[in-house]
Amino acid sequence: MIKTRLFAVFTLLTSLTFAQGPYAPAAGQPGSTAIAMDSSIIRSWATGAEVVRGYIQISDTGVYNLGSNKASYGRHYNAMGPGEGTSTGVVSLGDGGVATLTFDRLIVNGPGPDFAVFENSFGDTFLELAFIEVSSDGVNYSRFPSVSLTPSDVQKGAWDELDPTMIHNLAGKYRQGFGTPFDLSDLEYDPMVDLFAIRFVRILDAVGCIDPEYATFDSEGHIVNEPFPTPFNSGGFDLDGVAVINANVLNEVAGFEDLNLEPDSYFLPESAGNFTSGSLSFLYEGSSGSWSGFTYSNRVTLNGTYNDDQFVAVSRGGIEADSSAFAITYVSSDWMTGTYDPIPSVIQTTDGSEVLFGGFYVANTDMAYITMRDGTLFNKKFGGESGNDPDWFRLKVWGLRADNSVTQEITHYLADFRNEDNALDYIQDDWRWVDLQPLGAVKSLHFILESSDSGDYGINTPAYFCMDNLTVLNTQGPVLTAWLPDHEVALNADPVTVMLDDYFYSVQGDLAYEIAGNSNPELIAAEITGNQLLLTFSADASGSGEVSVVATAAGLSVTDIFNVSVLSNVGIVSAETFTFRAYPNPVSGSLFIENGAQCELQLTGMNGKMVLETMLLTDMAEVSLAGLQPGIYLLKLISEKGVSIKKIVKQ
What is the pTM of this model? Predict the structure, then answer.
């Protein structure tokens, strides 16, 4: 729900601190796990989204606001790209609404949180919540275990408050500008979900009603009690963005913004040829104003003429925003042979090599949509006058391998009236994802359209579809699964062995390891044999150094650095009993600290002056260093186990 209450109320809410529950507190408080939207650990943001809206009041679907009984505020693309941290730049899901996000790289199960979800709450206690699920194939999803300890004996009203310390692993826990982190390690094992190749993140609004007929439940069976009802067009979870923290290599996404177009225009093929976007070639035919195959457009204006209106998507623009570019296809019929079979539109790799396609977003053209909805003298109104006719309009895609063998077909329905319940009939009016990964590696893609409205001369339904964000999955590199641990050892300590496969992973198979750097080889000898790192230490010598290890697979590599300290102090605490991780280092904004629960944190400048002192309450904490001057600082954690110190570089 869009939050527009009076500033005085906002001030009151944001000043309240409950801290009654066992979980992390609000953003900015000690022990909070909130991720700032400008955090340096964020690598990218969602590049695609599809949204299925929920009712504005699921307990009474007769309630309408602004002409609809479903949420309508915002557009799908408000969930794409960097979060705005405002009340308005969001898409509202409604009660039980769902948003599914895609990305330009695979999210992986790395060290610490792997991604974060941002909502638009105007304060720390007015919270609207959502469940989070992930998938590697778009079919099988795993839901994060979540906990809501808010009592459910009394319904939280539309403007009532929640205590964030009573909430765990539910998106919306933090105010606008701060994301709720999610760690893939929290998920139970599911053989159908690859935690090193997450392509989809799904956000499902938690309804918040305590009536069991409409309630949603956390992983422990508790009713999720949150503000309800919120009968506005902006009801439900308001999604601002999804940030990627741990990811693999950047994939290739053909978004067609690299093609030269004037605003509100299109490219009309006038001969046989092709255009390229990235490593892909899109084939077309053209002559005397007619064309087939692929072209591209950013046209949004309808003027009632066939020549122009055929290039307008029903969504009025591409997946990224209104007026953004997209590809458009016209599938012609084979009239020369008299069969009137559809002639496939084709996309090829420019060099003829095989690639693995992830998928693409598809939409109807405005012309096809209106024709199916209303019918014409030459085209059938889908469903017929009764609404019971089982009409359909579908896209079929298949691939051609390097040996010219043909893959299976992927089918997507752009309109479907075959349901016994007419309320389930639809003509697609937005962008939807079509997954192509089941095709495997191919050198070309082939597309046709088919319709129940066909006759002696082929398909009657206007044979167009729109495409955006066609994704090629590049070769994936190795990733870190956990940070290499720092080591503190006593003088003349025994050698230390580290099993590197416990910290690196590659889908490509065996990893090759090597030492990339050693800042103090006189003190520390680092040697790798196979997947084992052996650290040995010079006799009767103390000091410290940094060792970096690089892991390589399929020509790609990843590097991690860890600290080694040889201390002469009697009774020092070994790395096995007290270690913590602080990252990123160097740091410009927020510093994240792992394994520092119940520790006192002290940050001291090189002049010996303490600049920060606080308590860490959770195993994952964020400490803002944005206000500090650039330089070198000593970070000290003090616990019952002992003292551990790291050098931090502030940029």
Answer: 0.87
Residue located via tokens 């992390």: 24
- DSSP labels, 108-122: ---SS--EEEEE--S
Which residues, 6+ apart, have CB-to-CB distance to 134 below 8 Å? 107, 141, 142, 144, 184, 187, 193, 198, 200, 201, 202
Coil vs helix vs strand at 400: strand
Predicted local distance difference test score (pLDDT) of residue 19: 58
Q: Domains (ranges, CATH) in the chain?
A: 1-248 (2.60.120.260), 253-473 (2.60.120.1350), 482-567 (2.60.40.10), 581-650 (2.60.40.10)
pLDDT number for residue 578: 63
Residue 569 corresponds to which tokens in the numbers above?
């102090």
d(CA 503, CA 481): 5
* Confidence (pLDDT) at 607: 63
Can you list the positions of beta strands (E) in 149-269? 167-168, 178-182, 198-205, 238-244, 247-250, 252-254
Cα–Cα distance measured from residue 535 to residue 537, given in angstroms and rounded to the nearest whole number: 7
Peptide bond into 584 cis (omega under 30): yes
What was the pLDDT predicted at 3? 54
**How many Å apart are CA 261 and CA 299, to the nearest integer?**
10
Within 8 A by CB and 6+ apart from 23, the residues are 147, 164, 165, 166, 167, 168
Percent helix, strand, coil in the chain, to 5, is 5, 40, 50
User: Pairing mode, if any, of strands 590-594 and 487-490?
Assistant: unpaired
Q: How do strand 487-490 and strand 556-567 relate by DSSP bridges?
A: parallel
Length of the chain as a residue count: 651
SS3 per-residue string spanning 29-95: CCCCCCEECCCCCCCEECCEEEEECCECCCCCCCCCECCECECCCCCHHHHCCCCCCCCCCCEECCE
Mean pLDDT per block of 10 residues along the chain (651 residues) reads 46 49 92 91 96 98 97 97 96 98 98 96 96 98 98 96 97 97 96 97 98 98 98 97 97 95 96 96 95 97 95 96 93 92 97 98 98 95 96 98 98 97 96 98 98 95 98 97 90 94 91 95 97 96 93 94 81 51 80 84 77 88 85 81 76 68
157, 170, 208, 238, 596 from 214: Cα distances, Å = 15, 18, 8, 20, 40
Determine if residue 84 is left, alpha or beta; phi over 0 gives left, psi from -120 to 50 gives alpha, anything else beta. Answer: alpha
Cα maximum dimension of the chain: 95
Q: What is the phi/psi pair of residue 620, to 5°?
A: -125, 115
Residues 610-636: pLDDT tens digits? 889 999 988 888 888 888 887 778 788
